């Protein structure tokens, strides 16, 4: 029956992560998948999350279905986190928010929704991109293309290229943007650049779809949402996917959100209905466990402050590892420009290493970097960061 099917080549990120775990060498460093590891190389379960889970478990609640759109307290907590607690757009009831299966689930529901609302619209995604962006939206039936984003010469943003490409898109094109911590490059637009881009999106009647999977890992929870809030201030209609996988360390709980900012409360109501229709036909309704914990943490002032402090600790550790590599490389390979380690921000660093250098890192040093040259910085800690810098210095020499 299925003889005609081809073998799945595997996902480039998950496949490499598995190859790392299968590597029998003692000395090896995993910089593949975007997971936040602590200083001991462990995946944290945040204490604030553990306590919230225990409290909920102690209540022995029955496990009825959640509403299709998810838990009301969770959706409201998501809105306050991403738009700001005092956001005008929330007071006006102009945002339709649903609980989703992680950030990827939000992209999928958003993709299906947009393809129905604008069947002729195509999507533009940064070059380079998180590979799965193309797969998810093509899976929704939306043709995808790329806009210029990254300049290999500076290992930074090609803002001129981005503006040139976006300014000529057909009306109602969908533009996928990362408000912070761009995956895979770590190169973000500055606040001023967002303020230049937003009028172009508006004048050309484009549909921005923001993917915010790393809120809090760049500058702070609030500052990382600058683009979101600037779009609200400018009166744009847009979609926003957010995720708690990284900043709540809740990867397998699949907790995310999809918000659509609308022109009026009435429009938001109809959009919410359509989002529910999409969810109902894909997975019917979301699970409750992780969402309950997040809702109880985010809706309690002191627990929220505790979680925000945890996120800040993660952010600072990532920044410290970036600086450590940069400083060590200055000593070990002074001719090599390692400034990109500190100029890029968030979980990922885009090294620009060649295929041969990446292979050599893996074969000779057990250092696993994605084939694109992306490294996930939190795989570094005090016990392996010097080894990594030395390995990198050896391959770039
Ligand atoms: C990554 O880019 O490594 C993460 O977003 C994990 C994933 O699902 O690919």
Automatic annotation (TrEMBL):
<dbReference type="InterPro" id="IPR015422">
    <property type="entry name" value="PyrdxlP-dep_Trfase_small"/>
</dbReference>
<keyword id="KW-0663">Pyridoxal phosphate</keyword>
<keyword id="KW-0808">Transferase</keyword>
<dbReference type="GO" id="GO:0033585">
    <property type="term" value="P:L-phenylalanine biosynthetic process from chorismate via phenylpyruvate"/>
</dbReference>
<protein>
    <submittedName>
        <fullName>Aromatic amino acid aminotransferase</fullName>
        <ecNumber>2.6.1.57</ecNumber>
    </submittedName>
</protein>
<keyword id="KW-0032">Aminotransferase</keyword>
<feature type="domain" description="Aminotransferase class I/classII large">
    <location>
        <begin position="28"/>
        <end position="392"/>
    </location>
</feature>
<dbReference type="GO" id="GO:0042802">
    <property type="term" value="F:identical protein binding"/>
</dbReference>
<dbReference type="GO" id="GO:0005829">
    <property type="term" value="C:cytosol"/>
</dbReference>
<comment type="similarity">
    <text>Belongs to the class-I pyridoxal-phosphate-dependent aminotransferase family.</text>
</comment>
<comment type="subunit">
    <text>Homodimer.</text>
</comment>
<dbReference type="Pfam" id="PF00155">
    <property type="entry name" value="Aminotran_1_2"/>
</dbReference>
<dbReference type="GO" id="GO:0004838">
    <property type="term" value="F:L-tyrosine-2-oxoglutarate transaminase activity"/>
</dbReference>
<dbReference type="InterPro" id="IPR015421">
    <property type="entry name" value="PyrdxlP-dep_Trfase_major"/>
</dbReference>
<dbReference type="InterPro" id="IPR004839">
    <property type="entry name" value="Aminotransferase_I/II_large"/>
</dbReference>
<dbReference type="InterPro" id="IPR015424">
    <property type="entry name" value="PyrdxlP-dep_Trfase"/>
</dbReference>
<dbReference type="InterPro" id="IPR000796">
    <property type="entry name" value="Asp_trans"/>
</dbReference>
<dbReference type="GO" id="GO:0030170">
    <property type="term" value="F:pyridoxal phosphate binding"/>
</dbReference>
